[in-house]
């Protein structure tokens, strides 16, 4: 008897006294948990997102629609970026004021090549206020997952208020579980047993989030 057969046999024995339930899984699982904590206005929800992003050491900027190209150019210049990788569906006007080489998100790009790129600019799928989390799903304005993991500097643009939700359950309602989801809460970081924090271990060392909205 193989290990697989032993494990499956134990599972069958453990479930032997569990009655069959013909109902779909979605109906048998009780989902009585809170979908969000408290009632907040749209403005307060965006403020909470900004607070929690900053708490995770992301750098937060607020920007009116017409000022985004200027802001992105300034952020990349302040960073000293000599090149920036862009997803294929990123609005071209966003980087209209940027005067450094733009690197396209190509399937043939290697990790070593992406490591030579200083920054990446993307959109996002949704942002969660209660957790300060940005979610990417590989849509055209976000590109492949690796372009947001290899370069050391990530600038993520969040459209406010359309892409901001209060809670994780609200975010899940908008996301397709079949897509490659990346959940980002601040810059990449880890700590050892003494809680010494090290940033940039398995992703960007610096995360800047632009909350885009208004005139």
Overview features:
alpha/beta; Rossmann fold; 6 helices; globular; NagB/RpiA_transferase-like; LUD_dom
Nutshell version of this structure?
The chain has six helices and twelve strands. It is an alpha/beta fold.
Folded structure, characterized:
This protein is α/β, with parallel strands linked by helices and 215 residues long. The protein has a single domain, classed as 3-Layer(aba) Sandwich (Rossmann fold), CATH 3.40.50.10420. Helix content is 25%, strand content 22%. A six-stranded parallel sheet has the order 1-12-7-4-2-3, sandwiched between helices. It is globular.
Strand and helix map with partners:
Blueprint (H helix, E strand, L loop, with lengths): L2 H12 L10 H4 L13 H14 L3 E5 L4 H12 L4 E3 L15 E3 L6 H5 L3 E4 L3 E3 L4 E4 L16 E7 L4 E2 L2 H7 L7 E3 L4 E3 L5 E3 L6 E7 L3
Q: What Rg is obtained from the alpha carbons, in whole angstroms?
A: 21 Å
Compute the separation of the termini in Å: 69 Å
The best one-word shape is: globular
Mean pLDDT: 91
Question: What spatial order of strands do you see in the largest sheet?
Answer: 1-12-7-4-2-3
CATH class: Alpha Beta
The amount of helix comes to 25-40%
User: What's the CATH topology name?
Assistant: Rossmann fold
Total beta strand runs = 12
- The CATH H-level homologous superfamily: NagB/RpiA/CoA transferase-like
- Enumerate the spans where pLDDT stays under 50 for 5 or more consecutive residues: none
Give a short account of the largest sheet: 6 strands, parallel
CATH architecture, by name, is: 3-Layer(aba) Sandwich
Tally of structural domains: 1
Helix/strand/pairing category: alpha/beta
Instruction: Please trace the helix and strand order, writing H or E for each element.
Output: HHHEHEEHEEEEEHEEEE
**Residues in β-strands, percent:** 15-25%
Number of helices: 6
């Amino acid at each position: 008897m193989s290990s697989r057969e032993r494990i499956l046999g134990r599972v069958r024995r453990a479930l032997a006294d569990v009655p069959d339930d013909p109902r779909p899984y979605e109906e048998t699982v009780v989902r009585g948990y809170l979908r969000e904590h408290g009632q907040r206005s749209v403005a307060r929800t965006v403020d909470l997102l900004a607070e929690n992003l900053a708490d995770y050491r992301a750098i937060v900027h607020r920007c009116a629609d017409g000022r985004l190209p200027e802001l992105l150019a300034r952020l990349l210049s302040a960073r000293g970026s000599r090149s920036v990788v862009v997803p294929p569906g990123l609005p071209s006007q966003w980087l209209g004021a940027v005067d450094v080489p733009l690197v396209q998100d190509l399937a043939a790009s290697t990790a070593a090549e992406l490591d030579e790129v200083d920054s990446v600019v993307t959109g996002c799928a949704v942002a969660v206020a209660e957790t300060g989390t940005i979610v990417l799903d590989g849509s055209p304005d976000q590109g492949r997952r690796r372009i947001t993991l290899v370069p050391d500097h990530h600038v993520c643009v969040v459209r406010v208020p359309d892409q901001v939700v209060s809670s994780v359950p609200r975010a899940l309602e908008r996301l397709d579980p079949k897509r490659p989801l990346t959940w980002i809460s601040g810059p990449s970081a880890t700590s050892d047993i003494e809680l010494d924090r090290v940033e940039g271990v398995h992703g960007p060392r610096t995360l800047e989030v632009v909350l885009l909205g208004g005139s």
